[in-house]
Predict the 3D structure of the following.
Amino acid sequence: MAESNRHSRGQNPRDARYDIPGVQRAHGQQYIQEPTFYANSNPASAASFRQDPPVRRAAGKKQPRRRSPGKKKNPLRRIILWLVFITVCLSVALILNTNWKTGCSVIPDTTSATAAGTSGTGSPAGENTADASSGGNTSYTEAIVFSSDTAKPLYGKVIILDPGHGGSDSGCIYPAANPTLYESRINLLIAQKTKAYLEAQGATVILLRTDDSWISLYRRVSLAHLYCLQYADQLGINTIDTEDKDRLISELIDSIVVNSDTADNGGMGIMAGTGVGSELSLLMDMESNLTDVMYLSIHTNSNEYTSLHGTQVYYVTDDSIIASEKDLPTEEPEYANDPSFPLRGEYYGRNGDRNALLAEILYDAITASAPQMETNAESTWSDNYAVLREHNLTGALIEVGFLSNKTDRANLSDADTLDQIAAGIADGCVNFFASGS
Ligand SMILES: [Zn+2]
């Protein structure tokens, strides 16, 4: 399911997840259980508040032995103890120093360590070896490493893959009681397979979630922004001056940190409120020119109309977002009255046609590779999704199929189908870039 998650502290004021074209949004019985995403705190967060039980001395435990007053001190023993103490202190200092050196300017989060893909670190290879000579600081994410095979169709392309949900947020599940199918797991499986197919075509893939861990929507977008800054620095095409860039990086990292535990703590940083603030506009403007970078979010759908089946690809345009938000201050007065949700100007710099074309090409490629995933609903659909709205990369959100449909469930439980879907997504990327768009 796609969460629109427009503004608020994790609440969905107007969730578009059931807006299937031609199907009236219905409320009532839920065929698929709603995710417990917002109800549960992240286990990692909960663990940090857990306290160890107080240590009690066992009854009858022997008291520490005291040195008898007249006993002589052993000078050799003292020297050995001091040597051990000094060695331990030096070791701790060395470890702390090493961690500080490697961690001070990198996103303080394990995701960043894995988000750069499997290519390791170091200078990019091939033509794209520009470093921070443009004045940029390239150490806030892992360096983006390009393949060395310039003949591959996706050489030089960077695909940010976002497997939806994860951890305590399982997305849609089936059946509601004792589920055997979890959207979060299907999304990750397909994303991992897609990564392999894309890399085989020469792409650099950044996987935003590599295991079953929870990661907030805004943290995903903040990571994408940071990688865009990194990418632009490496290629020497960053249009944001150093002062603004440093401030943006600091705010994006803050946003990641604040959004590292639960979805409802309001830490959206530069993405707070409706519309787009001036700071976010700087990024959006720059990203509109990063035509070799793409953001793909992978989800699995559900609907109470269980006959609906197949893949759909969602995208955003300025119009789809503005239409969806224009009545929000009236419908949700909290946005107009709460200073933490400022009402800001709409952004008119998205290339909606490009996004729409990508969605169409992706749908065609996925269903060419996996014909069993053709849909009986609209194949592409534009609306307002946080993971597409809050950046300005060419992007799409792929709902691979419906867990609420029996045939789709069988297909999405089949490894061959997942493989075909992944291959289709990669084919779609190749086709899209080959189209010259
Ligand atoms: Zn989803």
User: Anything to note?
Assistant: The longest helix spans residues 75-103. The beta strands are 158-163, 173-174, 181-182, 204-207, 293-301, 312-315, 380-382, 394-402.
